[in-house]
Amino acid sequence: MATQPQFDRWAAAFKFDKLEKPVRVHLKNVYSCLAIAMLSAAVGGYIHLFTGIFQGGLLTSLVSIGLLVLLGITPNTRENLMKRLGMLVGFAFCSGISMGPLMSMVIQINPSIVPTAFMGTTVIFVCFSLCALLSDQRTWLYLGGTLFSGLSLLMMLSLFNIFLGSRLIFEVNLYLGLIIMCGFILYDTQLIVEKRRRGDEDYIWHCIDLFIDFIQIFRKLMIILSSKEEKKRRN
After folding, report:
1. With a threshold of 0.70, does the pTM exceed it?
2. Tens digits of per-residue pLDDT, 169-207?
């Protein structure tokens, strides 16, 4: 049973007192926007799976990219707040619809994979975010070059595998991509803190980085779990 001093130390650790008040307020706004984006993406995924209104495909992908570009070029002003928030919701909604085909395939293999992958993604995201926020030094920022180099490597492997069709390369790409995206949670979280300290208050755009990290990890976990389920059935 934990003693009171131990409990007090744990409680103090999660108060984020080492972060300045403006940074804490900014992070609150970022994660609030992230929650809205995740809800919008969930609605998009639901519409693809259970209605015939919209179906994920090339069009929804192009719309999501267009909304992302439009959000990036729209100035971050108080007058544009609701407009940019609407663009964020639209981008997340289209992203959720675009995830629909993958979720449909996974559900056919085993419906429990989707909630399992979501819970796993949530645990990973929370743990790595806390690790970044509770770190005394912003050492994770130095991961940037390595992570972007890793992304370039993944793109090259994917390109080569189009012609080779190697299962081994596919799995290496998948697991390495998962590790890299976990690293991006650390990097992006600390980068958001440093950007706010330097005067960047665009919490809607900062939310995009974390949203993409979450979606990519969710996608990779669904593929990994479905692959394992298929192997079990074959054996």
Report:
1. yes
2. 888 889 999 999 999 999 999 999 999 989 889 999 999
